[in-house]
Amino acid sequence: MKIEADKFYFKGIGGSDKKLHELSFEFYKEVEPDKSLKTVRDRNIEVVLKKKDDSSAYWPRLTKDKIKNHWLKIDFNRWQDDEYSDDDASGMNMGLEDMVRSMGGLGGSDAKPSFDDIDVPSDSDDEDLPDLE
């Protein structure tokens, strides 16, 4: 496997039939090969590319050619929206309790609500129930 600034090349043998696989393509724009990561696993190869220049710039696709590659998959567990910066991402992991606390708690204060003063009417269906056998 070779990652260059403007292209990617792979050649290897894999699968139960030990078939030779080879591919190469040009990137949509340049990447930084030294900062890109690659991991070879039992059933797949994961590549994380670092964009050159403006890393926040949106790419409409990975390859220069406008074709759908059946062997290319997006790992949505690692997807990062361009809307959120790295600083904003830490706030996105906030739980409901943390969010309520950051908004001043329930009712505009940090005190927990008390339900002791609520008068609950009795339900006539709950009175004088027979014992279970």
UniProtKB/TrEMBL annotation:
Region of interest: Disordered: 100-133
Bias type Acidic residues, positions: 116-133
Coiled coil feature spans: none
CS domain mapped to chain residues: 1-63
Matches recorded under CDD domains: p23_hB-ind1_like
Gene3D superfamilies named in the record: 2.60.40.790
Listed InterPro entries: CS_dom, HSP20-like_chaperone, p23-like
PROSITE patterns linked to this entry: CS
Family that this chain belongs to: Belongs to the p23/wos2 family.
Name of the protein this chain belongs to: CS domain-containing protein
